[in-house]
Specification:
Strand content of chain A: 15-25%
Number of domains of chain B: 1
CATH topology of chain B: ABC transporter involved in vitamin B12 uptake, BtuC
Largest sheet of chain A: 7 strands, mixed
CATH architecture of the largest domain in chain A: 3-Layer(aba) Sandwich
Shape of chain A: elongated
Strand order of the largest sheet of chain A: 9-8-10-11-12-17-18
Number of strands of chain B: 4
Radius of gyration of chain B: 22 Å
Number of helices of chain B: 14
Strand content of chain B: under 5%
Largest interface: A-B, 36 and 43 residues
Distance between the termini of chain B: 25 Å
Shape of chain B: globular
Largest sheet of chain B: 2 strands, antiparallel
Oligomer: heterodimer
Structural class of chain B: mainly alpha
CATH class of chain B: Mainly Alpha
Amino acid sequence: MIERRLPGLLVLGCFGALLAACAPAAKPYECTDKIGCVTIAPAASVHIAYALVVAGPDAVLGTDSKRGVEIAIDDKGKFRGHTIELTGEDTGCNAEGGQAAAQKLAADKTIVAVIGTSCSSEARVAAPILRDAGLTMISPSNTAPDLTKPEKHVDGYMRTAHNDELQGAVAAAFAYTTKGIKKAATIHDGSIYSQSLAEVFAKKFVELGGEIVAGEAVQPNDTDMRPVLTNISAGKPELIYYPCFTSAAAFITSQAKEVPGLETVQLMGADPMYSVDYLKAAGEAAKGVWNSSPDFSAFAGGYKDFLDKHQKKYGEAPLSAFHAHGYDGANIIFAALEKVVVADADGTLHFGRQALRDAMFATKDFKGITGNLSCSATGDCSDTKIAVYEIVNADPASWNPTGATDTNPKKISQ
Amino acid sequence: MRKNSLGRLTITDVVMFAVGLGLAGVIVAGSAATLSSGKYTLAQWQDLFIFGLAQGSIYALIALGYTLVYGVLRMINFAHSEVFMSGPYTAYFFARYMFNIGFLQAYPVAGLLIVSAISMLTSMAIALTVERIAYRPLRKAPRLVPLITAIGASFFLQYTFRGLYGSGIDRYPELAILKGSISVLGVRVLVTQALVIVAAAVFMGLLYAFVMLSKTGKAMRAVSEDKETAQLMGIDVDRIITTTFALGGALAGAAGVLYALIFGQVQFYMGFVPGIKAFTAAVLGGIGNVPGAMVGGLFLGVFESVGPSLFLDGLGIPAPNQLKDAIAFTMLVFVLIFRPSGILGERLATKKA
């Protein structure tokens, strides 16, 4: 075997020497990056990975972001002659799923950067694993405040989604100031996202002068919400704020009005409930529910164009709230990669992982479709405004999330 | 050698008894504090109780499937939660179709009966298939083997249904006749809950009558007591086991429709939590014992519903409803400390050993 392969190797070696001789300016790439380098061979593609929830009850959340990334890849076409490849793992919207997905991605050395995760509890466990693998992750939909708090921030973690310090404040101000609601109750599902958003809302609501009559919690798999709602009804709230994920949120929605004392209560949720699957799961009771989400009407001019491409590619309107954030996230990766990549004469690309990470964190005044994105040292890049919407029709077929005041959901905040 | 019962008390018994007494103390103190604070009105307690009863009836129907199979085969059928899921999820598509063509609104009773029949038949078919493929070839294997197969069958079914129907959530159509509430002896009961409680009671009554009065029921009890002797007496054991799985499956299918009526949502993973709870209920009531499963189910449902408010609220624990599963399983521990074979459980030590 060895003897037979030897001439071939010799030929290859000579050919390589010839190439090197032909291009006198190119000296071989030397990796000086402290967390390693990636080499993309001439025929290989630029490999982007996602870690998003694309199956299960919250599948629309991740699928929506994934489609944003796919459209960004279509728009980019080729990266310096290389095709762009997207692969990924489902994260299940829980810590276990996030960990499993991160471990699989960390083992693949061809990955350039990761788009993900969808839910904040996934990010908490996935971020250290991806950091140790030298990867940089950019999340389109994690909103829990402490992911980007300086003392808890993990290197290489960033997001294009808004921080819930903002969302909770907008929701509380809308309920208290705009609608004059004085007594509210909160329910969270124990996940990092849900609990911290409920806490921010409660804090801001009390600061404004309102009263929180009950701070309750359920579990994501709970189905019978009537006991917890009965507990809450004892405090006679005018509004229940429950930033939970699809399944639990839908159970609360459909059972709330059946509990005596809560017949007229206003229901209010947050971005996971801004999805077509929430309408499917909650049924008729979804009508009249408020929820806070990105203000799509404040997005940049390119958003309209994006929606047309989305309609053309998938034949339907976006499923949830974080498609544009996925699109911007992918483009931030491409822009940073452009800055750090070194190309050989034969088309081989090299870049250092720390250099890419630094370039992504150095993103400043990036013209995305969610706004002008500038990343903080702890990875908050969002320029998203928050709006409050009302679901005016419970029929999933009427879903048309353009952020306008005459569609379903309808924008009701200023 | 001391032969009185005190002499056989081990240190474990003493510790467990102390733990039991401690739990009882916490329960009594918490309840007293909550009741004296007067935070909840009588009507709210009644609501909580009725919610629990409805949820408990569903647990009881599923628990019967566990207990029947355990009775004849001495194995835990962990695929039962998927048997429970398969019926209502399949029937959903028929319900949706009948709703879309207007049949369900025009003839709601007939429609619901059709949906229930489809659900029960599907669950029964799945239960029989699992028994035939996964359990019967292992009838002579050690008892741990079918247990592991059961877990495998459970995953297989879960992901098969996920592949067939998708991983999202679907919602049963809402019917006008099931809306609103009625008053029973001055207690407000939602129509869906009343229907669930009554239907579950009817199913349980029918099953009990079947097991106690029919010839097949008698044969089932005989197989449960001693398989070999039953065979010698001319009972076709395989047929009895098949019947048992069919009954358990049908009850799970019925429970599934009731679940869908109360909660509306169906998805491929919906069987897991009710399955675990129903298994707990079966153990709580005394596994292998038919009335035990019913009592265990109702007991568990009511404690889950009333427990967080009653025991924990008074102790000043924030967000007590998050802990309702902890309450359910603590109740299991509590009951098993004092009655190791369950509330109505047979004394295994004397009878089976």
